């Protein structure tokens, strides 16, 4: 399994609104600010401490966040971008839109972290989640998955963090054989969704046996 570390970056293109109540604009991924995500609780707790108006704006999944920042450039109203993972931070840094932070912390991560622009707030392993009442013995490799009749839902690597993670995972695991692995998996794939929320929703609705997600995903 590949690991994904999520980070927050502080933009230099926007500043707090000069108003009676300061406004902090945070661009993030849709599932973070959903009713069942952490966003509503974070907003209430943060506003109680900062005396500000914390405003979240969803922009799809992680890769879509980066595309949004790249498209808007210096016109972005975001003060913070929350939800870029380690497969995206290099491209984000290349935009020149993120300011260095001065945060120091003892991070509990599977890798060493030393990044002047991005602060980690979560991490997890990419994995295929399955319903153990329906899939008694899940496959332990992509070749075994391709040889099975299990149906999976995955995410688009152009807009989704897990989707991009899967692309890199298969390439890292199989090298020059990656294209053949994808060809073998073609008849297992029910659909490719824009983001994690859509994929996980289809899985929960029983549309697939397995879904590309994280080991920390709710089951």
Describe, in plain words, how this protein is organized in 3D.
There is one protein chain. With 219 residues, this protein is an alpha/beta fold. The chain folds into two domains: 3-124, 3-Layer(aba) Sandwich (D-Maltodextrin-Binding Protein, domain 2); 125-214, Periplasmic binding protein-like II (D-Maltodextrin-Binding Protein, domain 2, 3-Layer(aba) Sandwich). The protein has seven helices and nine strands, in the order E-E-H-E-H-E-H-E-E-H-E-H-H-E-H-E. Strands 1, 2, 3, 4, 5, 6, 7, 8 and 9 form a nine-stranded mixed sheet that branches. Helix 1 links the parallel strand 2 and strand 3. Helix 5 (161-174) packs across helix 6 (178-185). Residues 12-18 have low confidence and may be disordered.
Briefly, what is this?
The protein is an alpha/beta fold and 219 residues long.
Notable characteristics:
nine-stranded mixed sheet, D-Maltodextrin-Binding Protein, domain 2, 9 strands, 2 domains, alpha/beta, 7 helices, 219 residues
What would you report as the Rg, rounded to the nearest angstrom? Answer: 19 Å
CATH superfamily of the largest domain: Periplasmic binding protein-like II
Query: What CATH architecture label of the largest domain applies?
Result: 3-Layer(aba) Sandwich
In whole angstroms, the N-to-C terminal distance is 18 Å
**CATH fold name of the largest domain, please?**
D-Maltodextrin-Binding Protein, domain 2
Q: What proportion of the residues is helical, as a percent range?
A: 25-40%
Number of helices: 7
Strand content: 25-35%
